[in-house]
Every structure is written in C-alpha cells, then in structure tokens.
Automatic annotation (TrEMBL):
Topology term for the membrane: Multi-pass membrane protein
Recorded name of the encoding gene: rseP
Keyword Lipid metabolism appears in the UniProt entry: no
Subcellular location: Membrane
Protein name: Zinc metalloprotease
Positions of transmembrane segments: 6-25, 168-192, 346-368, 392-411
Cofactor(s) this protein cannot do without: Zn(2+)
Gene3D superfamilies the record matches: 2.30.42.10
Keywords, sorted A to Z: Hydrolase, Membrane, Metal-binding, Metalloprotease, Protease, Transmembrane, Transmembrane helix, Zinc
Length: 419
C-alpha cells in the first residue's frame, strides 16, 4: 500500500506539473483551455471553473490539457440544421440548442441557412414564420447538445490562431516545468538534508575485492586515476565504471603521503551493459548552506539531463537494448524500492523521474511534445503550417506505435520483476 501511495503521489505530481506548464502558457497566450485532466479514462472528479473543466480520471498514467481548436472541436452548423437560440440582454445569442425540442417560450427556433461560430460569429436562418433573420453570436455563447455543454471558441481563442512562438512555448512548457520541478526538489533536498560534500574518500574496503588486493584502506583520499585528477566521488565512480577489466593506476593520499596502487576493476553486467567495480564503499557527508543548495539544485538537474541524454544515445547506438527500458511497471517497482530507503531517497527519485519525463516528451516522435515541436519547425521553415489532416494522421500512427512499444516494455518489466 505504501508503494501504491508513493507511486500515485509521485507520478501524479510529475504529470500535474507537466500539464500545468502547458496550461499556464496557453492561458498567457490567450488560448481557451477546455479541460485540464490528470489521468485517463472515466472521470472520478470534475470541477468547472469559468471556461475550463478540471478533472481527475481513473488511470493515473498521464494527463492532458485540451485546448480549443486542437481536436476539431469547433461546431459547424450546416444548412438545414434546426437550432434553438436563447438571446442575452444585448440581443446576441447566448445559448444554442442542437437537436433538442424545448418548450421554453424564450427560445427562438431557426432552420439554419448560414452560420459562422468562429470568425464572424453569426447565425442566419428562417424562423418559424418563414422569415430570413440574422443574429450575432456572443463570444461566450454555450452550445448544448445531447446533455453536453460546449463554449464556442472564437478564432482568436483557438490554438492554431496564435503566433508560432506562442504555440512553441505552450508545447515546450510541459517538459520545461518538469525540469523546473526537478530543480526545486533537488533544492529542497539541499536545504533540508544538506548538500553532499562528495569528497572521494574511501569509507570501507570490501574483503577479497580488487581494491583490497591492491592494498587500498579506509580513509584513503583519491587524488587521481590513470593521471586524471579527481575532486568528487561521482567523478571517481564514473571513471571506474567505464574501465571494466582494464588495468587502472591510482594515487591516494594517506596520512599526508601519496600512495600509488594498481588494480583491475571487476566486470559487472547490468541491462546489457558492462561496468567496472573495485569493491569500496562511500559514506556521504552533508553540509547545510542556502547558496550551496541553490548550486546543488542547478548542477544536479543539469547532470541528470546529460546522463539521461547519454543513455538515450547508448540506446540509439546499440549499447543498450530495448530490454533495458522500463515502463509503468518498472517505475512502480523502482518506486517501491526507493521508498524503503526513506523520504529523501524517494524525493531524489522523483526529481530524476521528472527530468526523465521531460526528456521523453521532447523526443521528436509523433504524438509527443517533441513531435509537435518538430512540426512547428517544419512550419517555420516552410512559412506555412502542415495540413492538419496529414499531421493528425502522423500523430495517430505515432500513438499506435507508442502503444505497441509500451506493451513490449511492460511485458519486459513483468518478466524481469515477477518471473
């Protein structure tokens, strides 16, 4: 149950901040946001505030911000449609009823001749006396159809009507907010728990390990590895991990003197990739400083962005196989493991996941934010947008492929963790 709660809180928070980025920049650009949703599937909770419906849905595996004009959500009244109209105090149409008989005497009925609910905002048609009449439509008119209410979206409130720069920032804001969230989590860790000193000092040497055989002792301060100066523990571990089975020469400071030793890191294989390991342990020490906490938040965010991009590069070049990828099941399992090590470890994991989510969404794949940004790039180069139907088809194919990939990754996770 603790794992379930931790997973829902962490993943829900990451999705919330991602969609919040889209939402805030859409509002700033003047785009009508029809729905702000966390999760997919049937609604658990729905609250309408002004023009936006805020929902929580049953499957906590994502979310979306539905903007006017994105999904062909504009209503078109064709000639011959019978509509009911309710006028406001300015004698403009405030409510439009479609395909519904209403006994309210204040409702006017028209057989539509021509209508424009996007640009010119009018409806023209024949009333019950057969006379051709024309009414202006209010910018905040509501359409009622089959029990559903939909605000009309004037052209200037639709996503596609906005300048290219505004649309780019609205889409890019989702991943951007994931990076910002990660920064603030790392900052909070630095302020609450302290900033790791990260000094390359050996705390313990494991018996019968390469380090033990080479004569390394607890308290040794690593100065250089194969001629490369070392200032941080993370630098030291990265060098060793990249030298599996290779001869390595180290210089350590012991009791004020430099000691040179040679060893061969053991070869450890994980997710199809080989790593070096020498058999030493590190005991982190922390110091509290607001200035260092700010620096820690920024450097950790940048470092993890670089690491994840590096892992993606390894995947593309074949150093990692698709079996190394994890989906929701793998993330759930890892979240449970992290929760056992305490709240600070869980917070660090949440920050890494947030960066991962941001980067994954920036990949230039159809249906992802990166895929949409790629279409904006083409639009900028061509000087005109790609045909919406063609773009929609590409995104549809992309969604199908992503679903297949998700099924493969989920099956791999199930085999890895439960069999």
């Amino acid at each position: 149950m603790e794992t379930v709660i931790a997973f829902i809180i962490i993943f829900g928070s990451l999705v919330f901040f991602h969609e919040l980025g889209h939402f805030l920049f859409a509002k700033k650009a003047g785009i009508m946001v029809r729905e702000f949703a966390i999760g997919f599937g049937p609604k658990i909770l729905a609250i309408r505030k002004k023009e936006t419906l805020y929902t929580i849905r049953i499957l906590p595996l994502g979310g979306y911000v539905r903007m006017a004009g994105e999904d062909f959500d504009t209503v078109e009244l064709l000639p011959g449609y019978r509509v009911g109209l309710e006028l406001n105090e300015l004698d403009k149409i405030g409510k439009i009823y479609l395909n519904k008989e209403i006994s309210n005497p204040n409702i006017l009925f028209l057989e539509t001749e021509t209508a424009d609910l996007s640009k010119e905002l009018f409806i023209e048609g024949y009333d019950e006396d057969g006379e051709l009449v024309r009414y202006e439509v209010s910018r905040d008119a509501i359409i009622y159809e089959k029990g559903q209410e939909t605000l009309i979206a004037p052209e200037d409130r639709q996503f596609d009507s906005k300048p290219l720069g505004s649309r780019i920032m609205t889409i890019f804001a989702g991943p951007l907010f994931n990076f910002i969230l990660a920064f603030f989590i790392f900052l909070a860790l630095g302020l609450i728990n302290g900033v790791p000193k990260n000094e390359p000092i050996i705390d313990e040497v494991i018996a019968d390990s390469p380090a033990y055989a080479a004569g390394m002792e607890a308290g040794d301060y690593i100065k250089e590895v194969d001629g490369t100066p070392v200032d941080k523990w993370t630098e030291f571990t990265e060098i060793i991990q990249n030298k599996p089975g290779e001869n390595v020469q180290m210089k350590v400071e012991r009791a004020g003197e430099l000691v040179t030793m040679t060893m061969i890191p053991s070869v450890v294989e994980d997710s199809g990739k080989k790593f070096g390991q020498i058999g030493v342990k590190y005991k982190p020490e922390f110091e509290k400083s607001p200035v260092k906490a700010l620096k820690y938040g920024a450097t950790e965010t940048v470092t993890w962005i670089q690491r994840i991009f590096g892992l993606l590069g390894d995947l593309v070049t074949g150093k990692f196989s698709i079996d190394a990828l994890s989906g929701p099941v793998g993330i759930y399992k890892a979240t449970g493991d992290m929760a056992q090590h305490g709240v600070f470890t869980l917070m660090n994991w949440a920050a890494i996941l947030s960066i991962n989510l941001g980067i994954m969404n920036l990949l230039p794949l159809p249906a992802l934010d990166g895929g949409r940004l790629l279409f904006f790039l083409f639009e900028g180069l061509r000087g005109k947008p790609i045909d919406k139907q063609k773009e929609g088809m590409v995104h549809f194919v992309g969604i199908m492929l992503l679903m297949v990939l998700m099924l493969v990754v989920t099956w791999n996770d199930i085999q890895r963790f439960f069999f």
